[in-house]
Amino acid sequence: MAVLLKSRKEIDMLREAGRLVAQTFEVLRPYIKPGVSTGELDQIAEDYIRGKGAIPIYKGYGAHPGGHGRPAIPPFPGTICASVNEVICHGIPSTDTILKDGDIIGVDIGVTLNGWVGDSCMTYGVGTLSEETQRLVDVTHRSMMLGIEQARHGKRLGDIGDAIQTYAEAQGFSVVRDLVGHGVGRSLHEDPNVPHFGRPNTGLRIQKGMVFTIEPMINVGTYNARTLPDRWTIVTADGKRSAQFEHSLAITDGEPELLTVL
After folding, report:
1. How far is CA 152 from CA 208, 211, 221, 225, in A?
2. What CATH number is given to the structural domain containing 73?
3. Other CB atoms within 10 Å distance of the CB of residue 236
4. Quick one: which of 23, 73, 83, 145 has the most CB atoms within 10 Å?
């Protein structure tokens, strides 16, 4: 594992990219309502990001020709990931997917600005949510914040995962195991991987200058997941709902510094 520690100047550049992501969420927020398609949201986000001189990093990302037992993966077609209800992550935006009252949608946005990456996810309620769904959203956000509190110089990655897992499971939900947070820099995915489950005082020691995401995916039912035939969309194995929140953050001498905020 080769973790690239970032300088103050590099963190400042990452913050600029992260701020653009946060601004894009603010642009999208009024449009997240019943009757709007995820494809419409995608176009609004792309127009805004490109209008700011940035590149939507997800669009065209991740293509793999296959071989050696691995299936071919097409390039991701969207600017945003739009993950509705039982979709854990990597939902493909579509004009055929229309938001309905009571839905939740996880919107994941990644940009490259001046060569540096911003990456964040928010889950939004559409209209009026059921009590269980609202609780899922609230617990997921709180889980992320508890994980962020552990992201301090000298602690270990297992402390982050333990904080998230302990809280979410105590609330009756489950933590997705197959997908993790990751380092961020000039590339979207760098070392280290940051699991959202684990045991305290285990894993890589956290150092000043690390920049990574914390992005727990919390499910109502089982934590098991499956991938749809499009090779991108990941859904809960039991069809129950999932929520996700994500921030990119930098490790400092004290409190972690959130980069994907206004």
Report:
1. 8, 11, 31, 30
2. 3.90.230.10
3. 23
4. 83
